[in-house]
Amino acid sequence: MMTTVSLRTATFTLVIVLLASACSGNSAPRPEAGDGTWALAGRPLPPPLAASDALRMSIEGTPQPDVAEHRRNTFATTAQWAEAAASDEERRERMIPALAVEWSVKVTDDEIAGVTVRMVTPDEIDPANEERLFVHVHGGAYVFGGGLPSVHEAILIAGRAKIRTLSIDYRMPPEHPFPAAVDDVVAVWKSLLAGRPARKMALGGTSAGGGLTLAATHRFKQLGLELPGALWAGTPWADLTKTGDSQFINEGIDRALVSYEGVLEGAAKLYADGHDLRSPLISPVYGNFESFPPTSLVTGTRDLFLSDVVRVHRKMRRIGVIADLNVYEGSSHADYIVVVDSPESEQVYGELGSFLSEHLE
After folding, report:
1. CA 299, CA 159: separation in Å to the nearest integer?
2. What is the pLDDT of residues 237-276, one digit of tens each?
3. pTM above the 0.70 mark?
4. CB neighbour list of residue 274: distance below 8 Å, 6 or more residues apart
5. Considering Cα of 182, then 72, then 82, then 334, what sign does the dihedral take?
6. I need a labelling partner for 26 at 20 to 30 A (CA). Which of 120, 203, 245, 293 fits?
């Protein structure tokens, strides 16, 4: 981790934020100490020279991950998974009140259709967004990130896009594996439709939240529900198998996820609970995207999920879905949440705001 100056400049390892601290692994030696260059199979990987100064400096301060160690790290029992998730929640929930103050938002607890939700209301709402709502689903490999910390990204969205943001604290394994998360999003969406036109609402999130956004929309289609006016999928976990090319190319390069083997693979199996990992409601890349709403997709050149995001984008474009793909130089998985004061982060959420203005009624 880097030394923090404020909550906005806090850089927290996504392995901790999304997967839990037990997976942080050890550091491998660098060929040139202090310059941030990593050694990869006999060739150097310097920090990305074309990235912003803020992102590059953050990467320079990140020790090279030990891939073998990450592959070995996981949890052997459901009790260990539950304990790790509870510990992660307890550690991170202390950040939220101060984060809300810093971003000038108010967080209020509620319940919709029996599902815990939290409304994040910015002090200043864009007049164009007065009747609009962003429905947020959090990341965390479907196992972590629940409870009060589930609003972390919702605070950034509400604060930067100046839109009311409803964050769904969906049920998670080990107690509630698939399809509980999808069912919770569907239940909340059905209730919201009773009071607001679908075309005035967007659905979105990062990582597992992005994957759940796409999976839930597949389910909305199956049920004949009105679809959101727009979708936002930040580096979505769209394929819970190790299939995409970048799962191999960017192993050991993505400083957040590092590798599929280990916690990611364990979380995928825990969440699926024996169901086929290629089910479109688990791995939405395998679904039919016909009639999907306009979708904004975000990834980075070092993202372990880069190929999965590209595959979703290509499937959408082949059938005529409006789909934007924004790829950021040098960014690992969800670096825009890691280095929130970087130009990359500002652009991600700024472009999200523009996308909502363009496609929501």
Report:
1. 21
2. 999 999 999 999 999 999 999 999 999 999 999 999 999 9
3. yes
4. none
5. negative
6. 245
